[in-house]
Automatic annotation (TrEMBL):
Name used for this protein in its record: Biopolymer transporter ExbD
Bilayer topology annotation: Single-pass membrane protein; Single-pass type II membrane protein
Isomerase found in the keyword field: no
Primary localization: membrane
Native source organism of the sequence: Robiginitalea marina
InterPro entries: ExbD (IPR003400)
PANTHER family assigned: BIOPOLYMER TRANSPORT PROTEIN EXBD-RELATED, EXBD MEMBRANE COMPONENT OF PMF-DRIVEN MACROMOLECULE IMPORT SYSTEM
Keyword Mitochondrion carried by entry: no
Length: 203
């Protein structure tokens, strides 16, 4: 029998159950942020049987220094002008074999979109945001040209077709049709974006 005037006792028998329920609650309701990756295709493991000779004029060089400045084809360039310059390079068609190219056919620039390569190189101290922004502009150049050709051939943007094709909820019949169309546009302007090894600079 408890003594008169003593404080009431707290029943702690269910504290473990309460703690367990709280743990489950926080595990279920907590969201964990995940980093988004970059959509890039890695080169094949085995090298090709024959050596491929790449002419220098078919390589569009883009360098980013640690201060975020762009050196495009050894010339300083503003970021706002990068996409237009990349489009002009990819769409040049100097050798005359590209019937759908609308470029200047400059003999000092790329021969054909299938031969054109964009080489991106950055400094080890380059800001990640700057690097991603430059990449987006280069990929945007490919998408602009692909959208142009997709509109000409199929009456809709390539980016819309690709998104619908990659959507797992798209019916298989529609995906089969989109697969051929997406592959056709990708053949016209293959995305050859080469990322060179980073370097350290003293600039």
């Amino acid at each position: 029998m408890p003594r008169r005037g003593a404080p009431p006792e707290v029943n702690a028998g269910s504290m473990a159950d309460i703690a367990f329920l709280l743990l489950i609650f926080f595990l279920v309701t907590t969201t964990i942020e995940t980093d988004a990756g970059l959509d890039r295709m890695l080169p094949p493991i085995e090298p090709p049987d024959t050596d491929v000779i790449i002419r220098q004029k078919n390589i569009f060089t883009v360098n980013i220094n640690k201060n975020g400045q762009l050196l495009v084809e050894e010339q300083l360039m503003d970021l706002k002008d990068l996409r237009e310059a990349a489009i002009a390079f990819l769409d040049n068609g100097a050798d005359g074999s590209c019937a759908y190219c609308k470029g200047r056919r400059d003999e000092s620039s790329s021969d054909n979109p299938t031969k054109a390569i964009i080489s991106l190189k950055n400094d080890r101290e380059t800001r990640y945001g700057t690097y991603i922004t430059v990449q987006n502009e280069l990929v945007g150049a490919y998408n602009d040209l692909r959208n142009r050709e997709a509109q000409r051939l199929f009456g809709r943007d390539f980016t819309d077709m690709e998104a619908q094709y990659l959507n797992p909820e798209t019916p298989s019949g529609i995906r089969d049709d989109l697969k051929e169309k997406v592959a056709k546009i990708q053949e016209l302007f293959p995305q050859k974006l080469s990322e060179a090894e980073t370097s350290s600079s003293t600039n």
